[in-house]
Structures are given as C-alpha cells and as structure tokens.
C-alpha cells in the first residue's frame, strides 16, 4: 500500500503522501463521492455492503460523501456524510425511491468536497448525471453491480422489457471506467453482455461473531412452535417477488406431494419482511414467519435452520447464502450468479437449474431425510465461509479506486 500511495501522490489529484508509518492512515487524501439509490432507508444486502465499505475507507483515512435519497425514518444509521438527492417513490414499490438529479445542494457539496473518484452503485437518473459530471472533469468513475436489474421485469409479467433494460444498462456501464462485481459468475455475465472491459471483484464478507453454528438455539425454535425433530427449511431475505417466492412455494407444494420417509418431518421458516408477505403467508399455510431479524437475532434465526432454500436468480452474490454457510447450514440454491461462486454442488449444498421445481423438491427431500448429509454439507459450507474477510474484500475496492486515479492521471500527462 505504501508504494502504491507514493506513486499515486505525485499529482494534484490527491494530497502528497510520504512513506506511511504504521500510525498513519494509508488512504489519507482519497476522497470518494458515492452515489446510491438506497443507502440506508430500506435495509438490504447492497446497502449493508456499501456502508461497510464506507466505514472501512474512513478507518483507513479516506473521506467519503454519500449522495442518496434521505427519509425521515431511515432503517439504520449510515456511515459517511450523507447528502440528500431529490427523489420520487418508485411506482408500485413506494418503499424505494428513484434519485432524479443532482440538484443545487449536491453540486455545491461536490464542488467544495473535490472528490478524486466517483462511485455509482445503481443505474438511476442521478447516477447518470453523476457520471456526466465526473467525465466533464476528467475524474474516474467506478460502478458497482449489486443486483440483476434486467431480470426484474419477468416477475411482474413484463419480460419483454429485459432486452431493453440490458441495452440501457450497457450504455450506462460503458460510460464508467470500470466495474466491480460481487462474484466471478456475475463478472462473467457482465463480460458476456459486453457491459465493460474492466471488471474486477468486490466480493462480500460475513460477520462470524453473528453468523456461526453456536448461535443455534433450540429453545428459541420451540418458542416458535417448531419441534426438535422437525427439519427446518428456511427462507431468508426481503419478501418481494423477485426473490423467487413463487418458485419457493411451488417447490414446497411439490415436496409435500412427494412426502418424506416415515419418521421425518419438515417445517418452513421464513425470515424477513416485505410487501409480498401476505401473498407468501397465504401460499405457505403452516409456515413460521419470524418477521425482520437483525444483528445477533438474525444469526440465531439462520442457525435455527437445517437447510436454506434460495431459489432467487436476481442476486449478484447471495449474502444470505454465505450467512447460512457460516452457520453450517447446507444450501439448496438456483444455479445462477452469486450462489454458483459460493456453493459447491454436492459438497456444501445443491445447485439446481433455475425454476426446476422437481429437482429442488428432490434436493430438499434428501436433506430432510438424511441428518448425516446435512451435517457433512453444512460443515463444508462453514469451512468455505472462512475465506470471506470484510477488510480484505473492501481493500480490493480501495485498490481499484487508486488504480483508476493513477490511470486518469497518466492520461492527463500525455
């Protein structure tokens, strides 16, 4: 890091940095303007990752201003200086907001802040304008990809929109200098769709103090009416249709029709909250709905599962998959971006073709009937989860910022 900063500090775009001592901040002089469509007003995996990144950058001495919609009652406290963006509720999903433009307050803050790199995390109208603002000033732009936006229309009977969205995303991302994706499988999709020629990894970490097998609490399970001999098939995530709620419930129906070996029983437990909860509850009579769980309570809920079923194809990484693995819970997941980079099929879980109800049901039945299989695959998943350290992962983003700044400075000197 010392050598990187010494070379980098030879231009006016960052404060001069001498060879740092252990007591100095290694990212001093780095000023990041981060644009987000949802930074803290609805809790999800993407904004949790962004807040962790900002917290890490600040601990290393960087300054970060975050430009995102503000609400009166945010879901959680945010990291960095938060500057509000003009926004409107998303039609049909009013809990989310669309940032519309930069606005005078934002432009004044940007002028005073003088960022040396711009980071956009969602392809909304304000992010488009932020990219134009940065390009006009010769500043590097990094885009992070957090979800498969182009797949969302299929869950709302508008699949015809997907190629149009893909084309719009390509235009947006190719105006950026580089992309970071949370998994190699997602990076490969982006390469195949020609979104960028500079794509690196910004993976995700897991907090082992929260997610570990020791969080399993049989008394808590019993308080929910779950018997000790019932195998819990868990769902974890926001209750919205794009998380594959229809595939989940149809698969459970198929599992019930097939039945399991005599002496084995299963129960569905749903952890999370969202606008589709009433629909999901109607489709899963007898399931336990815990509502939102956070912090240590979330770790307890995940560890209470015996197998996680994640049929979603919209994730670019799959935070819930990694959290279950850290709790030694085997995972049955769609063979899609995100989970493919985490789950080893037949070793730590099962990867099934998206939407393949019969195969999903068969994989779940095997886990319900075989405790040894659950224990073996759960242990393998926990070992794999140890590879994901938040600090090392977030340093990879900082390294990408520094590389892009050096590249821009080199072009200016030509």
Automatic annotation (TrEMBL):
Compositional bias of kind Polar residues: 8-21
Coiled-coil boundaries: none
InterPro entries from the UniProt entry: Glyco_trans_4-like_N, Glycosyltransferase_grp1
Annotated GO MF terms: glycosyltransferase activity
Domain Glycosyltransferase subfamily 4-like N-terminal: 44-207
Region listing for Disordered, in residue ranges: 1-23
Highest taxon listed in the record's lineage: Bacteria
One Pfam assignment: Glyco_transf_4
CDD domains in UniProt: GT4-like
Protein name per the record: Sulfolipid synthase
Organism: Novosphingobium sediminis
